[in-house]
Design a protein that fits this description.
By secondary structure, the chain is α+β, with helices and mostly antiparallel strands. The chain contains 4 helices and 4 strands. The chain has a 4-stranded mixed sheet. One of its GO terms (molecular function) is 5S rRNA binding. Belongs to the universal ribosomal protein uL18 family.
Length: about 120
């Protein structure tokens, strides 16, 4: 019987494989959420570099947000990572939700990133 962590890793690997096939050289917007915070980064897998990153722990967001575990904080992180990615010259990305369902905080971050100028 597989453990919870093994199942998560399998889900993540399955999704990354599909993304790699469909990406066509575009960077990916990767999301990680913990119980207290949410993180997003735009990664160029060809070069193995992070092009832009944002999290609810960033100084400017930490002061404005009450906690990093709400949809409001995910919305703010999505807008910030989109702003930084556009400044780095990236507008087309592929969305990597990791092992998480496209629901709640992950969905709020994705929609805010779209509003901020990223298209996926």
């Amino acid at each position: 019987m597989s453990t919870q962590q093994e199942l998560r890793n399998r889900r993540r690997a399955r999704l990354r494989f599909q993304l790699r096939r469909k990406a066509g050289g575009r960077p990916r917007l990767s999301v990680f959420r913990s119980g207290k915070n949410i993180y997003a980064q735009v990664i160029d897998d060809v070069q193995g570099r992070t092009l832009a990153a944002a999290s609810s722990l960033d100084k400017e967001l930490r002061e404005a947000l009450k906690t990093g575990a709400t949809k409001d904080s995910a919305n703010a992180v999505g807008k910030l990572v989109a702003q930084r990615a556009v400044a780095a010259g990236v507008s087309l990305v592929v969305f990597d939700r990791g092992e998480y369902l496209y629901h709640g905080r992950v969905k709020a971050l994705a929609e805010a990133a779209r509003e901020g100028g990223l298209s996926f």
